[in-house]
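User: Second chain of the day. Same drill as before.
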Amino acid sequence: MADAQNSVSTAARPMRLKDALRQARIEAADRTGVVVDLRDAEIARLEILNEALDPLFAEIPAGVELFDRGITQGDTPRLWIDVVAHVVMGRDKRMYRFVQDTAYGRIVLAESYEAAKIADAVTSYVARRLVERERALSLPPVQAAPALPAPPRRNGLWTFVLGFVAGALALFALALFAALRIS
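Assistant: Same format as last time:
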């Protein structure tokens, strides 16, 4: 009977703030742990792709400094290929998404669950960038057109004097017209 009264009195009594805070902290730690585990999984997948790209980047000539490959571990981990292209994990944290930032926004170059397909897309991208670089280096330098000689500068004093005389004559003619009209 005493146990029944204790259970009723405990159920009727509200939870203390201290206990509620403790419970909320435990729940937040559990959620944070899940988020950290997902983030670690993303980074691990990006590292697998990064290792798969090692042979590709070993073939790039030493003098070419177009690419700066590396993993950033911010809120959204990314595997950067160069300044404008990177690989990020999709919403489900299993799909690789190879994207490029352009002047018109971000475009998706490739998406796949397989690292090999993304590695092939990155290989094609690197090849296109190297061809663009070769074409830019092979173009002859643009020569500036010869500067045209500046037209001789006229003295603005004569323009001012002519305008002043024309204005004075117009005022004189207006005054004369008004005087003749009144009389």
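The two ends are 128 Å apart (CA to CA).

User: Great, on to the next one.
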